[in-house]
What we know:
The protein is mainly alpha-helical.
Amino acid sequence: MRSQELRELIEESLRRFIDFDSGCPTRLREAIEYSLLAPGKRLRPQLVLFAAEACGGDIEEALPAAAAVEMVHAYSLVHDDLPAMDDDDLRRGRPTCHIQFDEATAILVGDALLARAFEVLATKIRVGDRAARCCAVLAEAAGASQLVGGQADDLNGRVREKSLERLESIHRRKTGALFLASLRLGAIVAEATTEQATALDEYGQCLGLAFQIVDDLLDVSGSEKQVGKRLGKDAERDKTTYPLVLGEEASRERAEALIDQACEAVAFFGEKADSLRELALFVRRRNN
Ligand code: GRG
């Protein structure tokens, strides 16, 4: 499937799965649409679909899982931008949710998206056993030991230890967990073999770290207009980053090596993993 078609399928599913009934107040609905349908890269939903495709599964069947993981991601961005967290006013090239609406609404948008993600998995993944496994995988990735734990450590560690080990531990949880969960969701929907699931896990771990290294590099040398969020905030907040710990050149080399490793991990899928390889190459050269 061409990437434009795939993109449209993802956008259409996102819209469809937030079609709340009349119990949802208009302003909340607008804020949810504003946040979820904003022009993001949709990397995580693509990972779900490409993983399913690599394992011989059906892309249409994986769409609810793709939408669910993007909902969790969008919730995390809305909450991360709040004054109590990263306090940002620009996201995806637009005012952040709490600036465009208000803080209480932004908190509720996150809450609603998180709940909806699990409702979609539980009700739209066709086989019951697979739906339950998808819920468990996404809940673990979004939970206190992964996404939320990584965010908590990141918020608490701004002026402390600047070791590579601590940095990677935060990113494995804050960024990597949702990448990995995306691949695992695709694998569950497509009933992957153990060998396929293991390869996707290695791909996901490498890609997640590479993505974060590139994110840190963009914060140092990217263009605010292209990236669509405020840059230079890591240094401003004394955050530990890859360029700070390794230097810019070594960070770039590490990202390259991780992307190569990700591509090697999925080599045995042959051309069925072409999309996964293309996505890894996009992460390497991305400027937004
Ligand atoms: C609030 C529980 C909670 C977690 C927040 C997502 C997050 C954790 C923080 C955002 C800050 C940040 C720079 C995170 C690491 C990289 C990241 C997740 C960037 C955003 O992802 P992209 O580039 O965004 O895929 P788009 O907008 O393209 O979807």
